[in-house]
Design a protein that fits this description.
Elements lengths: L1 E6 L5 H24 L4 E6 L17 E7 L10 H4 L8 E8 L7 H11 L3 E9 L15 H20 L22
Helix pairs in contact: 1-4
């Protein structure tokens, strides 16, 4: 079993959130996930640059994917949509993460969860994390902070328990946002 950090992170904040979540999953793997299988290695797949969006790593059904994107205009970044419709989840458990610039994540988390499910992932959990706004040095300045990372760690521990129990396979994940395909327009 591998834990994957997969992200689009032009400013680096989404990468930091995914790394914190994956590390907390690996830490929980010492007990919770280990009971469900074996120890986990952490692998990183950064698809921020266009060259990385030419392929997708070979993940397996036993893997856990922490998948993060920032919110653009309340949605998954439109520059990613063509690529994200080519990825293959192969039944791997996924944790969807949407980061946002201290305003709102609107439909981005819901859109990401629905997209991952449509591409073959078993979405076990979804969360949103406040980060510094891309267009401002004051909105969300210093976020995510220590309190945010503590919440991410607690969120990851709960997700690890849910994944280890297999409960996520039998229940639909409920996240805020308008169901697709009309998530709202880009502006």
């Amino acid at each position: 079993m591998k834990i994957w950090e997969m992200f689009f992170s032009p400013l680096g904040d989404t990468a930091r959130v995914c790394a914190a979540c994956a590390a907390a999953l690996a830490e929980a793997g010492g007990s919770t996930l280990a009971e469900a299988g074996s120890g986990a290695d952490i692998c990183v797949y950064d698809f921020t640059l266009p060259a990385a969006r030419q392929s997708f790593p070979p993940i397996s059904r036993e893997d856990i994917v922490v998948f993060g994107v920032p919110t653009y205009a309340g949605r998954v970044p439109n520059v990613l949509l063509k690529y994200l419709h080519t990825i293959e989840g192969r039944g791997a458990a996924a944790i969807a993460l949407a980061t946002f610039g201290n305003r709102a994540f609107d439909n981005a988390l819901r859109e990401l969860c629905e997209l991952l499910a449509a591409r073959g992932f078993s979405v076990a959990a979804g969360g949103a994390a406040v980060c510094r706004h891309a267009f401002s040095h004051t909105l969300g300045c210093g976020r995510p902070d220590a309190a945010d990372f503590a919440e991410i760690k607690a969120f990851a521990a709960k997700a690890a328990q849910k994944i280890a129990s297999g409960a996520y396979k039998a229940e639909a994940l409920s996240v805020p946002g308008q169901p697709g395909p009309e998530y709202g327009g880009y502006y």
